[in-house]
Amino acid sequence: MKMVLVKKMSQVGFTVLVLLACAGPAQAVRIKELVSIKGVRTNQLIGYGLVVGLNGTGDNQKARFTIQSLANMMAHMGVQVSPDQLKVKNVAAVMVTAEMPPFARIGTSIDIMVSSVGDAKSLAGGTLLLTPLNGVDGNTYALAQGALALGGAGAAGAAGAVVKNHLQVARVAGGATVEREIPMQLDGRQDLTFSLFNPDFTTALRISETINNAVGKRVAKPVDSATMRIQIPEEMRADVTLFIAGLETLEVMPDSVAKIVVNEKTGTVVIGENVRISTVAISHGNLSITIQESEMVSQPGPFAGGETVTTRGTDITMQEDKSKVMLVPGAATIGDLVRALNAIGVTPRDMISIFQSIKAAGAMQADLVII
Question: CB-based burial of residue 283 (10 Å sphere; 0-12 exposed, 13-18 middle, 19+ buried)?
C-alpha cells in the first residue's frame, strides 16, 4: 500500500490528510469522473446580436427585426436613418450562446456559438458586432465580438447550389470576455455536497467509505442514491481547494443497474456487464416467402387466323431456415449469452426480438430499454 502525503501541519508535526493509493481493480474510476460538487457548475449565457460583412447572404427585407435592429444600432451611434430606407443583404440577426465555466474571472475568454434567427443563407465571412451576454437573472456577464468561423462552405448559381455542412451556425473561439464574476467562495466552508452523475446507492456508499478511509475519520455520509455530504476537517477549512483535489483522485469501483439497450431503427444492441440470464432454451428461425409473377404470350402462326393470348402465372415458394435450439444455463454471464447467440447465427436485429422474448419469459435479470 502506497501512502501519499498531501499536507502536514508543521506546528504539531502530524498528517492532516493522507490519501491511500491502493492498487485497485482495473475498472476503478476516479471520484472526479463520478460526481460533481454542488454549486460548482457552468452557467448558460445568451444574447441577441448582428453579424455584418456577409457577401449578400444575409437576411432579406422580410426579416423586419433585422432591419429594426440595424436602425437602432445606427441611431445609438448617432446616425439617424429610417428602417424603410435600409435595403441591405449583408446583415443577419443572430442569437449568441455561451457557457461560463465555474470560477471564471473578469477578463477570462470563453467560446461562443452564433446561430442565425432569420433567413440568412450563410454566415460565412461575417463579423459579430459587440453583443452583451446575459444570464438567467438578466445581468450581463460577458461581451462577445469577433470574426466567425464556419465548418462548411457553399456556392450557388442561377440554376443550382452546392452546400457542405451547415452554414447558419458559426463558432468564435475565445469570442467573449467575462465582465462580471459569479461569486463562489470555497475557503471557510464547513461541508461539501457531492452529486452523482448516475445515481446509485451502492456507488454512493462506496465513495463515502473510500473518502472516510482516506481521511482517517468519518467525514462523508451518503444522503441518498445521488447525494453525499462531506464534512471538511477543521484543519482543512483554510485550504478547501487542496482538500477537494485530494478527494478527486481517489479511485472507486462504480456500480450500475443491469441493463440492455436496443435501438430498433439502427439495429444497435448494447449489453451491460451485469446482465444475467436464468436457464432458458432459445430457438430462432426466419420464414421467407417469395412471390414471383410471370406472363406467357401465345401467338398464332404466320398467315393463320386467331388472336394473341396472354396468360399470367404465379410462383409462390416458402422457405423456413433451419434453426437450432440452444440451452443457456442459469446465471449465464454476458459472455455466455453472446457465445450462445453467435452459435445460433442471429443478427443484431434478431437479438432485439430474442431479448424481448427472454424478458417476457421472466428469464432476464436486467432492464430492457428500447429506444
Answer: exposed
